[in-house]
Amino acid sequence: MKIIRTVEEMQRTSQAWKREGRRVGMVPTMGYLHAGHISLVRIVKREAEACVVSIFVNPTQFGPAEDLARYPRDFERDCRLCREAGVDAVFAPEPAEMYAPDYSTWVVEEALTGPLCGERRPGHFRGVTSVVAKLFNAALPDVAVFGQKDAQQALVLQRMVRDLNFPVKMIIAPIVREADGLAMSSRNVYLSPDERLRALSISQGLDRAAAAFAGGARDTAALCADVRAGIEAAGGRVDYVEIRSRGTLAAVAAVDEPSVLAVAAFFGKTRLIDNLFLG
Ligand code: AMP
Fold first, then answer.
1. Alpha carbon distance 152, 264 (integer Å)
2. Which of 84, 114, 151, 226 is the most buried (most CB within 10 A)?
3. Per-residue pLDDT, 66
4. Residues acting as catalytic residues
């Protein structure tokens, strides 16, 4: 497995693979890998003959009061997991390789980034779309896989790829959960044992919503109120619980089109997100 530090070497490597007739698949990550990330690698390996995992804690998608400096990192372990999963190259540039001191060009999606995390984390999605455009220009993937865990991010990036004509097939992969239901996340390591237990109220709320939806419940306000109440009863601070159209992320009063029930909540200082596709 190659470890690549520069954009130029990444481009040369990917171009060489393509000359050999290999399709290139990519999984962009911020590292501190878990089974959710590795599930994306498995999907890439079904779709492409060469697999790149990028590991880059992207400074431009963190707000000034967010956790950039303490974001968990373990590059050796990440490389071992990638090697075991059959990854061909880890692309791990330093921030200075990605951002010149006078960097000044941004990719901005202007519709789907309005609500949810877009509203609560100003500038976050500008950082995400810009860095993914740059990672695509480095690794030149034919296929890229993103997790439904970050549902708004996946929808925004699909829109970017369509709008800017990136020749990349975009795949959204299911959420991988711990045995007790908590959605896997690099940020789960911040949780104390007590917070970790209380955070289960998120996935438990989503399970109740899934069951209610299967039983015919369609009223958005009632579905969201139940999820919110469960999180608050467990001592979480809800950032949002909303049901929105999966096509437009517009608010819907009743779930009568493909929708997403999206949750963000704080347990202690840690902000967790999770979601459920409805319909
Ligand atoms: P991150 O390293 O958190 O930026 O995530 C990198 C990619 O892995 C993103 O496409 C995430 O949506 C995806 N991902 C993160 N957690 C999970 C999970 N529990 N299940 C599936 N995909 C995930």
1. 12
2. 151
3. 97
4. 37
Express each pLDDT in 184-196 by its tens digit.
Answer: 999 999 999 999 9
Q: Where in the chain do CATH 3.40.50.620 domains reside? A: 2-173
pTM above 0.70, yes or no: yes
Residues of the chain with CATH 3.30.1300.10: 186-278
Residue-wise pLDDT tens digits, 73-96: 999 999 999 999 999 999 999 999
Q: In a mutational test of the pocket of ligand 1, which residue from 39, 52, 149, 182 has the highest number of ligand atoms less than 8 Å from its CB?
A: 149
The matching CATH number, chosen from 3.90.1150.10, 3.40.50.720, 3.30.1300.10, 2.60.40.420, for 186-278 is: 3.30.1300.10
What pLDDT score was predicted for residue 71?
98
> Whole-angstrom Cα distance, residue 87 to residue 44?
9
Which atom of ligand 1 is found nearest the CA of 31? 2
Q: Is 183 in the pocket of ligand 1 (CB under 6 A)?
A: yes
The model's pLDDT over 116-173, given as tens digits with 9 standing for 90+, comes to 999 999 999 999 999 999 999 999 999 999 999 999 999 999 999 999 999 999 999 9
* CATH code that applies to domain 2-173: 3.40.50.620
* Residues above pLDDT 90, as percent of the chain: 100
Name the residue at shortest CA distance from atom 5 of ligand 1. Answer: 29
Q: Tell me how far CA of residue 67 lies from CA of 45, 64, 125, 228, in angstroms.
A: 32, 8, 16, 25
Q: In what order do the strands lie in the sheet with 24-29?
A: 2-4, 89-91, 50-55, 24-29, 143-147, 169-173
Residue of minimum CA distance from atom 17 in ligand 1: 36
Cβ of 195 less than 6 Å from ligand 1: no
